[in-house]
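question for whoever is on the cluster today: can someone run the full assembly for these? two chains, 719 residues total. i dont have access anymore since they changed the login thing
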Amino acid sequence: MGYRVGIDTGGTFTDIVLLDEETGEIITGKVASTPEDPGLAVLEGLRALGKPPGSIVSLVLGTTTTTNAAVQRKGAAVFYVTTGGFEDVPHFATGRQTRPVRSAVGETAGVGTPSQLPRHCGADRSGRSR
Amino acid sequence: MTDLQTPVMTGSELAVLTARFEGVARKMANTLHRTGRSGILTIARDFSCIVLTARHELVTAADSLPIHVLRGPEVMSRTMTENHPLLRRGDAFLHNSPYHGCTHPADHSILVPVIDDEGAHRFTVLAKGHQADCGNALPTTYMGAAKDVYAEGALIFPAVRIQSNYQHEMDIVRMCQMRIRVPAQWWGDYLATLGAARVGEREILSLGREIGWERLETYVREWFDYSEKRMRSAIRAMPARRLTRSSRHDPFPGTPPEGVEIKVTVEVDAEAELIDIDLTDNPDCFENGLNLSEACARSAPMIGVFNSIDPTVPKNEGSFRRIRVRLRENCAVGVPRHPTSCSVATTNLADRVANPVQCMLAELSDGLGLAEAGACIPASSGVISGVHDGRPFVNEVYLGCTGGAGAPTTDGWLTIMHVGNAGMCYQDSIEVDELRHPILAHARRLVPDSEGAGRFRGALGAYSEFSPRDCEMTVAYVSDGNFNPAQGVRGGRAGAPSSQYVKRRDGKLEPTPGCAEVLVKPGEAMVSVSCGGGGYGPPEERDPWRVAEDVREGWVSRSRAEAVYRVALTDDLRVDDEATRRLRQGKPG
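^ ran it for u. tokens below:
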């Protein structure tokens, strides 16, 4: 038993919610995001909860920061490092498609964006931890 | 706003109201996606949301899986009104009967009649979601070997009233909870599907009050007429011809040893602006789960047609008027008789109908049609189940399935999944799957040189490997394409076949059958290879720059580039123009 924490970092606010697994109590918080270094807002939000880090058994972070960077094409040059076997995951996400394709109904599936990550900019490191 | 008196709608009005109806379907879809419980709905998005008229005509199917919705909903809606002549606001109906218009029993659907303030039935909204489990005899929603519907075991609901006056018929709910594995998961998915339909109902009631019901009626007529006109125009531009083509499904339990050859005849009558598709010259229903429901038998060939023409032609009752599909009763790709099993109706044989249609249209003229998309359902997209830490789990996962067909102007869509899906389902997030289920994924990657080569190539196949964590796991799948890979068209080559194995503790790979429920023990792994897509056009006509890019990215080997695409590369993997010219002229390099 301990605390479960969920954090959502957006361009404007960083929202945080904490669940006390024992009592079911829920605490929410909101701090201004720090786009220049998104981690600062996350840490500030966590500190504001006033719980010792060791009592947090699960922490899930969701963020639109990377989505925004991809959509706005403002991302830096990247090199994708992953555990062996997952080097193509970014390509599954995009389909590597640049033109409309024909589809019977799925208009939204008809147009994809090219992967922002050429495959040669990926590297795998063997072994997954359990 | 009051009803406008103009007799004919302007193009702008048609466009605006079309967007409004599509918006209704998208709001329904968003509701289902955000509020469902199982991974197959909330991660993979295996659901569809549509709007029909009160006369059972499809108005919009925005963001839906084509095999779910092109045909069949009209029969489901008619079944609802025939079984329940007196419809009231607040009614909702549960429907999964493949004998009454539904795709297959795993696709639980909720129909809600939209009743105006005067009590008139105006539209029907339909939300359909593939269940993580539907109460079959085995923990899978794809019972490939089921002899009949009794061997399947799922409860069948032919438009059964599940809400009156917005209140649940709890008897029905309790029956489902006693039959469907992990009932809390089903309950969450049911509420999400019902919620999606109720959102659709609310939005259309609001639209009717704003625009006026008669005006919406005018819109529907004119939208159908416009759509039919677009379809007429698309067909008129095709060469008039009659073609027959086959596609062969792998041998499965209950099929002949050589598998199932599906023969499709397409006649394009450009003068009459009609496409006639005949599926009657095919085997009778099998004693297995591969048989198509009428919904799938009618939708599958239409998928092949719509995949082959201008994608902006609207898909609705209007454009459907120009396609005639001939079916035969008790045919494996026709109209099944109860108690024939249609457990796997949405994928395997349905794809063997859709694929030859789009290939035939490709053969009519360069620039039309598509190659064959890869067959499914590989083990990586199978239903996983077991008991972990005393708690049961069951869900269909989407760990890695690709197979897009080469097209006239572009390479195959990587994550199309299968031709009837149109790429609408998402591939799962490994991390989220591992949080939700006791599994550990070891790999998800693409398989080099598995594409069907072509001027525009098919998608590469996918390799997936995953294990149970601290428990045993059953993986149930129906993997076609082990022996009959996706064919190319117009000189394009076939994609690589699918395969599947259990990786034992010592690392040895043991092949498993194409249709199976496989028990994977702790320390072992399921290994799944999905099909590559077929290629479009001769590979030696592929732009050499594209071939070089594929080699640089590791999708295609240098030796294959030279042998199949006839493209020579320099040591830094740039196109060697002179050597390529010689290769393509058949001269020694």
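summary bc i know u wont read the tokens: Chain B touches chain A through 47 residues (CB under 8 Å). The two ends of chain B are 74 Å apart (CA to CA).
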